[in-house]
Amino acid sequence: MRMKKNAVKNFHKLLFLYFILWILLFEFILPVNNILPKPSVVLLSFSALWNDYKLPLNFISTVFAIYFSMALAYFTVWLLRVYLIKSNHVISDFIFSLHWFGEFVPWIIIGIFLIYWLPSSEYVKYIFIFSTSFFSIITHLKKEMKNIKNEYIDSAVSLGANEKNIAKKIIWKGSQPKIFDHLRILNFQLWSLIIVFEYISNRNGLGIIYKHALEYKDLSALFTLLIITGISVYIGSKLILYLKNKFYHWSFV
Question: What pLDDT was estimated at residue 129?
Answer without folding.
Answer: 97
